[in-house]
TrEMBL record:
InterPro entries: PUA (IPR002478), PUA-like_sf (IPR015947), PUA_sf (IPR036974), RlmI-like_PUA (IPR041532), SAM-dep_methyl-trfase (IPR019614), SAM-dependent_MTases_sf (IPR029063)
Keyword Protein biosynthesis found: no
GO annotation, cellular component aspect: cytoplasm
One BP annotation, GO: methylation
PANTHER family: RIBOSOMAL RNA LARGE SUBUNIT METHYLTRANSFERASE (PTHR42873), S-ADENOSYLMETHIONINE-DEPENDENT METHYLTRANSFERASE DOMAIN-CONTAINING PROTEIN (PTHR42873:SF1)
Official protein name in the record: Class I SAM-dependent rRNA methyltransferase
Organism, scientific name: Blautia faecicola
UniProt xrefs under Gene3D superfamilies: PUA domain, RNA methyltransferase domain (HRMD) like, Vaccinia Virus protein VP39
Major location (coarse): cytoplasm
Family to which this protein belongs: Belongs to the methyltransferase superfamily. RlmI family.
Subcellular location: Cytoplasm
Residue ranges constituting the PUA domain according to the UniProt record: 4-89
CDD domains tied to this protein: AdoMet_MTases, PUA_RlmI, RlmI_M_like
Length: 400
């Protein structure tokens, strides 16, 4: 089979050469040979040096997403099985696999594809045109590879309903791959039980990336009064409760999230100590401060305030504001956990923003630890987009 050849401009492809996975439209000198969007192409450097194979899409600024650095490697079922097998073996080594991310796109060398496992259910998100052709084959292979270890998958649901699909020229898709099944599944993480709705929950139904950050907070929250902001399904709040916090309040602007979190509290027998309220966190924190409320632990887990480099300046203002408000509610000697899930809010930028917030709130910070996303969301160096979650734990000391 002959493939179209994408040739880079001289001096371009720096990210690719450093180990990244993308070729952008403005890095390309020429494309020779016939192709259709989504098909496999060869990528050459400006001087003809072969750099590998990937799939092309002229609808996207990410013009080529690399599948392999071996220019002779056929992208067939055997190749996809190898990728799937490697991803599963890695998870078995690094994380609790009862519920985990099985495929993390570029970081697992399957660009544009996410697959999450919730006990015996898989949820698939495909955000790249070229991966559409391989999606169902990969699902089949995942089920086969897991079955070899005695893990039987009872159903697969697709949540390819993100707006990013439009950039690839793809329609949103939401529904079953294969036979329908009940889309609510109970999972256990860090000893906490949750009911996950893979059809209607955010993203693929649950945020698995904070698994070990939540576990780290169990030690901090024991015997403490805790405020969990942007609680979503109550994950940090419930980890605090199960660890022995004396009183936990979870805040979220979504009625649906609060109802789910409340049900999860009952599921764990924590409804007497872990209470959830529907509130706009930005408005509620000043109200609590005015009422004289103080907490041993304040947790800030906001949604991404920016999904583009252009919006970063406004995002910084949002992170600074919420950290100032959160810090004012922490008792002297108490703890603040604060994070960002935006790729564009770098570790250095978040640290600078929190430092400025502490200065404005007249607080001093002692760093307890810095953490990132769970290892089932591996960070591929040179593929910066795979590193997005930054998580700080501080002790907060009044200036005196």
């Amino acid at each position: 089979m002959s493939y179209a050849v994408v040739t880079l401009k001289k001096g371009e492809g720096r990210t690719l050469k450093a180990g990244g996975a993308w070729v952008f439209d403005n890095e390309i000198e020429s494309i020779t040979g016939g192709f259709t969007n989504g098909s496999i192409v060869l990528v050459h450097d400006f001087d003809g040096y072969p750099m590998g194979r990937g799939f092309i899409n002229q609808n996207s600024k990410i013009r080529v997403r690399m599948m392999t650095r071996d220019v002779h490697q056929e992208i067939n079922e055997a190749f996809l099985r190898m990728r799937v097998k490697n991803a599963w073996e890695y998870r078995k080594t690094t994380v609790d696999t009862s519920s985990c991310r099985l495929i993390f796109g570029e970081a697992d060398f399957l660009p544009g594809l996410t697959v999450d496992k919730y006990e015996d259910v898989l949820v698939v998100e495909c955000l790249a045109l070229g991966m559409e052709a391989f999606k169902e084959t990969i699902v089949k292979l995942l089920k086969e590879v897991l079955a070899e270890d005695g893990v039987i998958i009872r159903g697969v649901f697709e949540r390819s309903d993100a707006n990013e699909r439009k950039k690839e020229g793809l329609p949103k898709v939401k529904g079953w791959i294969g036979e329908p099944y009940k889309t609510e599944v109970e999972i256990v993480e860090n000893g906490v039980h949750y009911l996950v709705d893979v059809e209607n929950g955010q993203k693929t139904g649950f945020f698995l990336d904070q698994k070990y950050n939540r576990l780290a907070m169990q030690r901090i929250c024991k015997g403490k009064r805790v405020l969990d902001c942007f609680t979503h399904m109550g994950t940090f709040a419930l980890n605090a409760g199960i660890a022995g916090a004396t009183e936990v309040t979870g805040l979220d602007i979504s009625d649906y999230a609060v109802s789910q979190a409340t049900e999860n509290a009952k599921r764990n027998g924590l409804e007497d100590r872990v209470i959830f309220r529907c509130a706009n966190v930005f408005d509620e924190l000043p109200r609590l401060a005015e009422a004289g409320e103080k907490y041993d632990v304040v947790i800030l887990d906001p949604p991404a305030f920016t999904k583009s480099r252009q919006a970063t300046k406004n995002a910084i203002k949002g992170y600074r504001e919420i950290n100032i408000k959160g810090l004012k509610l922490v008792k002297d000697g108490g703890y603040l956990a604060t994070c960002s899930c935006s790729h564009f809010m770098t570790q250095e930028l978040l640290a600078k923003t929190v430092r400025e917030a502490a200065r404005s709130a007249h607080k001093r910070l002692r760093q307890v630890e810095f953490r990132t996303q769970s290892p089932d969301h591996p960070i591929l160096w040179a593929a910066d987009e795979s590193y997005y979650l930054k998580f700080f734990i501080f002790q907060v000391v009044d200036e005196k």
